Amino acid sequence: MFGPDITFLGVERCDLGDPASFEGADVVIVGAPFDGGTSNRPGARFGPMALRQACYLPHDGSRPSLALRVDPLKDLKVLDAGDVECFSGDIETSIRDIEEAVHTISASGAVPLILGGDHTVALPDARGVARHHGYGRVSMIHFDAHADTGDVEFGNLYGHGQPMRRLIESEAIRGDRFLQIGLRGYWPGPDTLDWMAQQRMRSYEMTEIVERGLTECLTEAFAIATDECDGVFLSVDIDVCDPGHAPGTGTPEPGGLSSRQLLDAVRRICYELPVVGIDVVEVSPPYDHADITAYLGNRVILEALSAIARRRETAAGGEPWDPRKPLLEGRRAVPPAAAGL
Amino acid sequence: MFGPDITFLGVERCDLGDPASFEGADVVIVGAPFDGGTSNRPGARFGPMALRQACYLPHDGSRPSLALRVDPLKDLKVLDAGDVECFSGDIETSIRDIEEAVHTISASGAVPLILGGDHTVALPDARGVARHHGYGRVSMIHFDAHADTGDVEFGNLYGHGQPMRRLIESEAIRGDRFLQIGLRGYWPGPDTLDWMAQQRMRSYEMTEIVERGLTECLTEAFAIATDECDGVFLSVDIDVCDPGHAPGTGTPEPGGLSSRQLLDAVRRICYELPVVGIDVVEVSPPYDHADITAYLGNRVILEALSAIARRRETAAGGEPWDPRKPLLEGRRAVPPAAAGL
Amino acid sequence: MFGPDITFLGVERCDLGDPASFEGADVVIVGAPFDGGTSNRPGARFGPMALRQACYLPHDGSRPSLALRVDPLKDLKVLDAGDVECFSGDIETSIRDIEEAVHTISASGAVPLILGGDHTVALPDARGVARHHGYGRVSMIHFDAHADTGDVEFGNLYGHGQPMRRLIESEAIRGDRFLQIGLRGYWPGPDTLDWMAQQRMRSYEMTEIVERGLTECLTEAFAIATDECDGVFLSVDIDVCDPGHAPGTGTPEPGGLSSRQLLDAVRRICYELPVVGIDVVEVSPPYDHADITAYLGNRVILEALSAIARRRETAAGGEPWDPRKPLLEGRRAVPPAAAGL
Amino acid sequence: MFGPDITFLGVERCDLGDPASFEGADVVIVGAPFDGGTSNRPGARFGPMALRQACYLPHDGSRPSLALRVDPLKDLKVLDAGDVECFSGDIETSIRDIEEAVHTISASGAVPLILGGDHTVALPDARGVARHHGYGRVSMIHFDAHADTGDVEFGNLYGHGQPMRRLIESEAIRGDRFLQIGLRGYWPGPDTLDWMAQQRMRSYEMTEIVERGLTECLTEAFAIATDECDGVFLSVDIDVCDPGHAPGTGTPEPGGLSSRQLLDAVRRICYELPVVGIDVVEVSPPYDHADITAYLGNRVILEALSAIARRRETAAGGEPWDPRKPLLEGRRAVPPAAAGL
Amino acid sequence: MFGPDITFLGVERCDLGDPASFEGADVVIVGAPFDGGTSNRPGARFGPMALRQACYLPHDGSRPSLALRVDPLKDLKVLDAGDVECFSGDIETSIRDIEEAVHTISASGAVPLILGGDHTVALPDARGVARHHGYGRVSMIHFDAHADTGDVEFGNLYGHGQPMRRLIESEAIRGDRFLQIGLRGYWPGPDTLDWMAQQRMRSYEMTEIVERGLTECLTEAFAIATDECDGVFLSVDIDVCDPGHAPGTGTPEPGGLSSRQLLDAVRRICYELPVVGIDVVEVSPPYDHADITAYLGNRVILEALSAIARRRETAAGGEPWDPRKPLLEGRRAVPPAAAGL
Amino acid sequence: MFGPDITFLGVERCDLGDPASFEGADVVIVGAPFDGGTSNRPGARFGPMALRQACYLPHDGSRPSLALRVDPLKDLKVLDAGDVECFSGDIETSIRDIEEAVHTISASGAVPLILGGDHTVALPDARGVARHHGYGRVSMIHFDAHADTGDVEFGNLYGHGQPMRRLIESEAIRGDRFLQIGLRGYWPGPDTLDWMAQQRMRSYEMTEIVERGLTECLTEAFAIATDECDGVFLSVDIDVCDPGHAPGTGTPEPGGLSSRQLLDAVRRICYELPVVGIDVVEVSPPYDHADITAYLGNRVILEALSAIARRRETAAGGEPWDPRKPLLEGRRAVPPAAAGL
């Protein structure tokens, strides 16, 4: 929508208005360049543009993962549908149009991967997915510094601080299958926290994560996420990371995860769980430096895609992934010539 | 609305809900921290905050103008009403609320001075003023790189590219009393230009300004602005200046006025014409460097206020302003003691 | 002193010249916008302004802590006395005036919380507190990359590299109750280190912290800090954090703590120890990016205040704080209606 | 070559390896992302990417010029051939490949418009054009702060300080048809200046331009440029502008032209003279702020294209361009309905 | 003093403690890295470091001026004495030590050229010169947005807003030989202006400069400056330029001179008048972008030195400088070989 | 080569053309300001300049290490030979000249410490060392996000993505003594990884490092590095660190080491292993913020030098280094006077 018409790292384009163009896709990427719901620093409208190109390698539709030994952009059929036209001054129309686009993707059998935009878009993102998979049948794993469960803000029901409340109220996502990771700071207040408790949400504040370890917290969350649910929606607000790792965002909260922790967590989720929808939100290029936040968002996406690809490979009988295996172990260590090829 | 609750350079606060608080004011400043209408780079929501404080001098409610020999913050009663609450995701509500605030100020007899926000706010700004002074009785002098006369954009009637069309359509401002200064570049297209011609607008593109000189163009415009109109609304989009002088804005267009030209033009307008409303818009701090755009916007405001103060002083029998007079000429050049005081 | 006259996140103002205005306060915040003692990059004079406003939430004098379940700005009476006027070119007058302000606060029974400024201000900060609580009766916990125990630098006894030496020499703080955490790098040299050893200071260099763990080091330090002392002064130089987490500072030293580590350590100190004074120094906005250093400093302050509030609540019979307790556990998990309310 | 594969503001792509793809083109744009010849700040390799997209309007292959009343991207057939692959570490191969690409375009009858890259590329740019139009038959108008007539630098014949010497030595461009505008500063030294005088170059240093006026200097230069030459090559080094207007460049020299001056001069050249090749070089995004230098470069290109389009329109019998004509004068000022349409 | 020990563009070093080291020098450069007198943004302490190296050419002690046809670093004996040690927290000692250094240079017969530092240093700079040339015998030409004639600020007699008052009070410089160029904005107030008038200062505010032209104003000022004075001190506060051209400064005031205007004015002063001392102040690197302010300051210095060199050449019988003469005119336009050499 | 002629933190200069000037040196620093081999963001040419001066302490040739209790710049004879002249447009000449310089140093008995430059320079760096110590007799410990084992890129054998392949092919370094630490992301692809496996390289990808711990991986690597090799070359690409800690680099890859981890690892390598050559590369100042990447690179160098100094001290009978020992333990804790001195 803003700037040139590009696709994510050069993958093929598709057109949501033309079902044949994305038939058989595994993942369809769509941009939601909306930041009218931001309560503070705007700029996430440029997130889709930044996330699609923040990479120093050629934009050739190929990214072989060192760690997972797959090429997600080749092993999966990943297409980019471009951006939903979002006018930041009209939040209701934007939400409606995004939901429609996401649902179209979901209904085609592909995993929608939405490039935000501010976190407002999680409402149409997850609801669009749930409309296809069934309300209440998709759990949510939500990385964020903020609970995003506000009620009315600035006189409005919608915005980047409220999508999770609207999702639960709409019953698209069950409150007791809502897992939040990385919360911290000074928002929301007690009333909202009480409301969250009443929904039986499970929110891991950073103190608990530090004390118990992220690995243990994730394992616990995974069990909840897969109980009576068929799929998982993964929503990554880049501000879950510490501002040192992700300065380019609207509402930075010190004391967050490191980039490494986020990448490893996303990988594990997409490898171990049946992820049916993903969004990566709140990357705000005007506040970024040397594109480091956009690079991180781009890698979160690639990590997710790689793990989905490896999960499918494993499911199809491939070797389970072993994170301790050395990079070069098991490779064709004898030159073809020496091997008599 | 964003950040701490401050007033313009420390002037006194007033409350638009309490008429007594601004009774007798000459000028009332109000912030319109809205940027949901921006077609490209957002950030103008932080304009009011930046314009109020971009000054290295103490925030003491005093600014003696070297050039005009008045202290606008003391010689005039200037108050700051704070910000209208504007949710950038809801353009229609924001426009309504801003118009209401501006009308309240205008109706009190004061000159409203609105701190944008993106240029969307010129619609409620000028309409709020015209509601008081009479539709068609206020002319417009509009500094901008862009005509802002678009019709529908992003499926919406409102936005920062359309306020001038809506103003003329609503008959708040007559098309043939609409003076535009500084246009340039590659927008809008022929259809919109035809529409503008049909409204008998007078638009000075930079080429004409360079060829004829800004002084001559302004003189010509002043004659139109005061013909059959009782007052003038001055709308300053900071992008009328060259990006070298005003990088912190949403849609920078190279080849604009220098800071000096803009300050001198604003001064002349407010000294020579009966200005009844002012807005300064499109200062976008996230794209600024070393606050130079915010400083410029702050000085545009002070220049306007100083000239209004001097105009009133002259009208009350004071000496007419002579721009060629040396700074120290006519000052009390003999020390009080030597003068026997 | 610089820019508009604001208070810390909107708490009420008080006036150090008017004792009634801060009677009964628990904490009084005061700015020390001095950077004339900086040996390299200046800019910390803008620290107080930045620390007061670096937050994306409304400046409403309320900040409910997710982790500690208190609202420090409401559960405590926190006031802001504004800035001590500090002329950076006159270090001695500035030190004198800051000490006077701090002592005034301390003498009133409140905890002074000083917003630096460069680290020069730790001298008047801690001495002002010790004048009230008794020389030698207050221990120091000092987070910093640097020991700040230089003797004469640039021909002067005062500056941001020397306050700790002056404090010990003046006997305001006992050398053997001086705990330093986070030291690293290449300063000071052997003679100064010998002097420090002679004072029986206990300085935790990063190597020891990495090897033993920060938790163990803190526990050890706490025992020293409370031995024969009635109170603890907490001095946080933001450069104790790694430059990746705190770039906006005067003398960044790679290899420091993460934001998370600092926040957790400050929380623990203020929850477990009788803190009687705090300063947060060396935030230098001109070198910051996207305000991340200012945000970190703001959160250090809120973490300290929250822990003080929780400590008082616990002391008054409240439940001791359990860092492993899930965020929503123990909240009013049954909606009022369902509970028959 | 770097980043996504985009075209200039959305014009159609062509392929230099496929002559049919650019048959009948008026202008073919090609990127030369080379900065291995830079003597100081690199980054011009990202010039093509930045110049193609530095615009806030939709990338829709249309840009109606307000001043010239043409739409250069529609009135001309403008195509974008993408980038020549340039390895910055291999200057000789890069020069060879760029020259080949430019010659291919020139030979097709189109005007090549090269997006630099550092000024090294002017050698293959102008030589590629001269190979088609005839050595010595094309004059050069060269905007720059620097003469770029160095001999051997860093032990090499090629680089961004030497292309003009190599061009004259190769006889591609006659020294006495070499017009330089905007030189200033402290380079080159007397020997090189003597060499330039011997070639009968005509170089307008800023002092002469200030004293005589740019308009007069250009008029004089135009007479030389068209004497015994069939075409003009226009080479615009963005550093001809003052660093305030063009900070994002490798070797900024204070005291240059304003943006407005450069745009007006480029317009006049392309309207009045038979331009057969253009390059815009030395835009270095890593040193830019808020993209203002890239925006300026983009507008230099559009100004050139617009003037070429208007020149052709005038040549085909259209009304000569009058810079003093008001923007809306002569437009369809009666609404279609009122006109009975 | 800060960073590595370098000299201005590679000229030879001298030592003020060793008179032999600067015997026979024409100009001695000395740094005054002091910013303790800044009323707002600090950073000018890094001015000397930045001014010495802000150039993309080799640091080889040679800079042939295109415009003036001299090489000031070779035609004059220019030495660099390094920095005076200035502790920004101790303004009085710093002033004393700078004055001593400047006087030492002046007494040796060389022109001192001081690299600021904030404008505080003009007091010791001009007083150091006047001590040698005679109190009242040196006039002042002062480029600045601000009059710098404040009395007491922050309780102190010294600072960057007061040096000109102290100079006149001390009778080092006569008030009626004090020429100020470029003033504008909202400081100082009437009382200070009255004081200035009483001293018979002549201050050119920007309005007068725009109306009358800078050239005419300078000519008028030159007559005053040379009346009953033997020498001229030139003090250039970089903020005399518009913030678009000089963002990296402490107290930017919109509406100033362009870079080109300042360079031409400095050149003319140093060519036409007997300059006996120079300072260039208020370059603040932390607020600069892409070093453009530092580059401008560096060129101000080179322009001054070049003009001094050309003035001496002319005085020694050389051809007077003609600004309208084309760059290559009069050069050795016949190649040595062709000329039979 | 760029900017002023300085040495690393003020150590003495030597001249590679004059063997006497570096006779007896322990370490000779040399700059390789080459970035023509960069596949994406350039700027590393300014690495040597930045690495030499990125320190807030005086540039006095002394840096007492707190952790290691040595002063590497005094306890070792460390000299700086300045920069090898590298024209970034000519990669082959640059490689040749760098190798020659490094070999000269190595042959003198000193450890060469090369300041990059992009990683292209590792080829001449390590080959220059191996030419002296024997091909195959020096192992490599290589910190990097990237394997740098590409074959032909951009049609060229040389560049910053290929040095490690060329080193192994040339047999300067044995593939099975090549240890890589910190690899991650999406490059290179399977064919290159197979080639690496065939060479029996040992590459620690971040996943393995996170799972097993960096300490254990290093210990394992050390055993390989010292098996049948006499020395170790340490090559540190700053992008091994997370972009949050090292934004100023050409090809940032999220998820890397922290600064602390890198410093500790470098220290351990240089303390435990016989390091015979070091390079620190890919610091790119144009992309840095607040110099934090340059500071990190500077500290990597100091950490390496300190550990070498301590290793020699220990080898000479000094106390082995104990990382758990408190900073002040074992210092002269009794004041000289009290001790009767």
TrEMBL record, chains A, B, C, D, E, F:
Q: Which InterPro entries match?
A: Agmatinase-rel, Ureohydrolase, Ureohydrolase_dom_sf, Ureohydrolase_Mn_BS
The record's keywords, sorted A to Z, are: Hydrolase, Metal-binding
Which SUPFAM superfamilies does the UniProt record give? Arginase/deacetylase
Spell out the Gene3D superfamilies in the cross-references.
Answer: Ureohydrolase domain
Broad class of enzyme this protein falls into: hydrolase
- Membrane-spanning residues: none
Can you provide one Gene Ontology molecular function annotated for this UniProt record? agmatinase activity
Amino acid composition bias (Basic and acidic residues), ranges on this chain: 321-332
Q: Which branch of life, at top level?
A: Bacteria
Q: Give positions of region: Disordered.
A: 313-341
Enzyme Commission number:
3.5.3.11
Identify its protein family. Belongs to the arginase family. Agmatinase subfamily.
Recorded hits in NCBIfam families, A to Z, give:
agmatinase
Protein name per the record: Agmatinase
Species in which this protein is naturally found: Sphaerisporangium rhizosphaerae
Query: Taxonomic lineage per UniProt?
Result: Bacteria, Bacillati, Actinomycetota, Actinomycetes, Streptosporangiales
